[in-house]
Write a structure and sequence with these properties.
The chain is α+β, with helices and mostly antiparallel strands and about 350 residues long. It has a single domain, classed as Jelly Rolls. The protein contains 12 helices and 16 strands. An 8-stranded mixed sheet has the order 1-2-11-8-14-5-4-3. A 4-stranded antiparallel sheet has the order 7-12-9-10, with no helix packed on it. Helix 4 packs across helix 8 (about 170-195) and helix 5 (about 80-95) crosses helix 8 (about 170-195). The longest helix has 26 residues, at about 170-195.
Amino acid sequence: MLGITTRRVIVQTRPYYRQRCLATLAQEVLRDETFHIPVVSFSKFRKAKSSAEKEQTANEVVTAFKEVGFVYLKDHGISPEVIDNAFKQSAEFFKLPMEEKMKIPWDDPRANRGYVARGRERVTQETDPVKIAKMRASAPDAKESMEIGRDWDATWKNKWPQDSLVPKFRPTFLDFFQTCHELHVDVMRSIATGLELEENFFDDKIHEQYHNLRLLNYPSIRTELLRAEGQARAGAHSDYGTLTFVFQDSVGGLEVQNPHTKQYHPATPIPGTIVVNVGDLLARWSNDVFRSTLHRVVSPSKSLLPPDAEMTPSRQSIAFFCNPNGGANISCLPHCLGTTGAKYPAVTTQDYIVSRLSETYS
């Protein structure tokens, strides 16, 4: 089981899984009754014995990103032991006294590194700084985080806690960062295959590892506060890069918006899977062929948290935000122009991400 808790996860099976008709995913997601995030086994792509096996998995991934913007990826190649250790070391960091964590504060959107105290970030689709400030004051995100980038960056250095306090923290997340990057390369190769591009099309556009690894701690909170109007552990938002890998514990609370009906649905934790979603830059790259879907973190669903629970338990997650190279020019892929042409002007990765981070942090 992913994460650091011992709570048992019960994944409810909806009737339409048992009596699956011939409807396509595109038809199923039109209605909330049949909306779901597909589960895709990635082993056939990673260990393919033929191009046909690779193409089959690639098509499943691409279809999920076209219709939902999200997928549960299983058989992804990152061992449970590696993930469990990452959760353990993350938890050890967040247990540190506040004065120790505040010695390594997040202080520059260009760096995007360091500790972010509860209330500093308010993720949202809003871009007006005045409105965001009001939202932050009235309904701040109920979380704290630790941001880690590529460790060899010549300009922006990672901020690490003292090794004597958490001796395994730095080596754990240096390795985990690299492991996630390698999976990112494989998933982008599957996307290229599904779009009928050369399999290695994205390789030289993501090799600089301009990514962000975010450790997240959502402290226990009174349920009535979390369920109040406008309150959330993380407000509704899209992500900024190509893909996001979300490693969940068993508590739950992640919800995904149905792009067609605008209703939110739980992304219930499924042991052994990573939740993978499309970010804004991949949506722009693909001319919205892929969906950068809104999502949020709220009170867990009734199947995971009784409706009369006074307290919502603490939650841990780890998000790996995959990005193109900082100077990569993100403009519409030729295969995605369609009949109307490019929807978005070209933008560089760094300009877009720094702009979005500047808007959401105080």
